UniProtKB/TrEMBL annotation:
This is Sugar ABC transporter ATP-binding protein. GO terms for molecular function: ATP binding. Residues 7-240, 249-497 form the ABC transporter domain. SMART domains: AAA. It comes from Streptomyces crystallinus.
Length: 499
């Protein structure tokens, strides 16, 4: 094993127009190390990943792998033999088989021998202990299997450094444990990982070293074991004190008041079985469940994204037409989708325009849009959600991922929804912004609206007054505040007792 660092980046500067995204930063990852790169939304993490994977050309600085200078910019094959990034959004081609994906871009000359290709794919997967049928189409794989295939593919190109960008975002607790197990095995063989995550508990569980960036600068690098969590958060935010915030449900819901949002006998074939819901004014209801629990499908059905196969949804007693987002909006339902594809943002439009897409009819008389009011609303959202932008006029495509998610939240709040449905609203959002965002959801309820949060993140569920746990499309447990992490996790995994 080489004693040279697997990755040594020094003095990296990167500008996007007037934005200085990286200000002479460094990052060193040793062989066999699992190195976390953390920082608030917009700190420069994705930009650094772009530079060390050969996607962004830095304005200054050097990158070296195992002591050798990085390949020339544009030499894709050269970069691929050094480093690979496993993104949330997969790079594999969905319609091709696993075997084809593994050997993409490197078919030998002459006719392709399919039998041999499949055999070699099976050997390769076995070599890295990945248990996936090479004949399956990539679209048939679970998120977890796809990540394993991508890791095996990267290693087969010779890469000994793998970048994982929020790899656990769509995995359930067991999937995360299997992923971490695999990463530890590979680490023992000398493979190094750079791990980008907003889940600090995962950093403590998996990583040996951590680097913090703040506002485009390198703040510290330390062994994880020597850095207390409060100190890590202080380094990220630049404020002493860490996160003392614990939302704590206030249980201010008026139990006698008529419910704002109701569902009766609501069902979606293959997703969830008939269920009833009633969310009262001032109440935040949590729908807790892992990926395949049906919780997300339920949230999407409430928001009009999917049409229920049975049952009714009503807002303040008035039925809402099923499967129609415009009708849900008109009925007063606000929707915060999970960030996955930054659903619905118009990339080239400004922050202000995106944040007010649903309210343009309310910003000026007789259907006119007054730019001053749009900007005013956007400014208040930028402040209350702590959106890192040069200003309301900046186009959303120039924002970091977490900040784009906050614009999605702003847009849902713009209409002052009477019922807010949020699906994993804090995905991709940094620790500090998470507090701000959940506090905003709480405030919406405190002002008399109903709110529903669909999530398997315990921090998201802690703001809820009541939590329903779903497993395999059924409500398996219901909790008022006061649940323990352990019992809720067990219920989401289908091993809890019905209380
Ligand atoms: N294509 C781009 N055009 C203009 N500015 C950009 C572009 N990409 C990134 N930026 C800016 O560079 C800075 C760093 O963004 P980056 O995406 O690296 O942050 P990040 O730490 O990955 O954030 P997050 O946690 O939200 O993903 C931000 O101010 C962002 O607005």
């Amino acid at each position: 094993m080489s004693a040279e660092p697997a990755l040594d980046a020094r003095g990296i500067v990167k500008r996007f127009g007037p934005t200085l995204a990286l200000d002479s930063v460094a990052l060193t990852v040793r062989p066999g190390e699992s190195h976390a790169l953390v920082g608030r939304n917009g700190a420069g993490k994705s930009t650094l990943v772009g530079v060390v994977t050969g996607l962004h050309r830095p304005d200054a600085g050097t990158v070296a792998f195992a002591g050798a200078p990085a390949p020339a910019f544009g030499d894709r094959a050269g970069w691929r033999s050094k480093v690979a990034c496993v993104y949330q959004r997969s790079m594999v081609v969905p319609e091709l088989t696993v075997a084809e994906n593994l050997f993409l871009n490197r078919f030998e000359r002459g006719p392709i021998r399919w039998g041999r290709l499949r055999r070699r794919a099976a050997e390769l997967l076995a070599e890295y202990g990945v248990n996936v049928d090479p004949g399956l189409r990539a679209r048939e794989l679970t998120v977890e299997q796809r990540q394993f295939v991508e890791i095996a593919r990267a290693l087969s190109f010779g890469a000994r450094l793998i970048v994982l960008d929020e790899p656990t975002a769509q995995l359930d607790a067991r999937g995360i444990q299997r992923l971490f197990g695999k990463l530890r095995e590979l680490q023992a063989q000398g493979v190094a990982f750079l791990f980008i995550s907003h889940h600090l508990q995962e950093v403590y569980e998996l990583c040996t070293a951590v680097t913090v960036y703040r506002d485009a600068r390198h703040v510290l690098t330390a062994p994880v074991a020597e850095l207390a969590k409060d100190d890590l958060v202080a380094a990220m935010t630049g404020e002493a004190g860490g996160t003392s915030w614990r939302p704590g449900a206030r249980a201010r819901r008026a139990s006698g008041a008529a419910p704002v949002l109701t569902a009766e006998g609501l069902a979606l074939d293959g997703e969830f079985e008939p269920l009833d819901l009633a969310v009262r004014p001032g109440e935040v209801l949590g729908l807790a469940g892992a990926a395949a629990s049906g919780a997300t499908a339920l949230g999407e059905t409430l928001a009009g994204m999917r049409r229920a196969s049975a049952g009714r949804i009503a807002v303040r007693g008035r039925p809402v037409r099923p499967g129609s987002v415009p009708h849900a909006l008109d009925a007063g339902i606000g929707y915060i989708p999970e960030d996955r594809h930054r659903q619905g943002l118009v990339p080239l439009r400004s922050v202000a325009e995106n944040a007010t897409l649903t309210v343009t009819d309310q910003l000026g008389p007789w259907g006119t849009v007054l730019p001053s009011r749009t900007r005013e609303f956007a400014r208040s959202m930028i402040a209350s959600l702590d959106i890192k932008t040069r200003g309301p006029e900046q186009s959303v495509s120039g924002l970091s991922g977490g900040n784009q998610q906050k614009v999605v939240v702003a847009r849902a709040l713009a209409r002052r929804p009477v019922a807010l449905v949020a699906v994993r609203p804090t995905a991709g959002v940094d620790v500090k912004s998470k507090e701000a965002l959940l506090a905003v959801v709480r405030r919406v309820a405190d002002q008399g609206s109903a709110a529903v949060i669909v999530s398997d993140e315990l921090d998201d569920l802690r703001v809820c007054d009541r939590v329903l746990a779903l497993f395999h499309g059924r409500v398996v447990a219901e909790y008022d505040s006061g649940w323990t992490d352990r019992e809720l996790v067990a219920a989401m995994e289908g091993v809890g007792e019905r209380p």
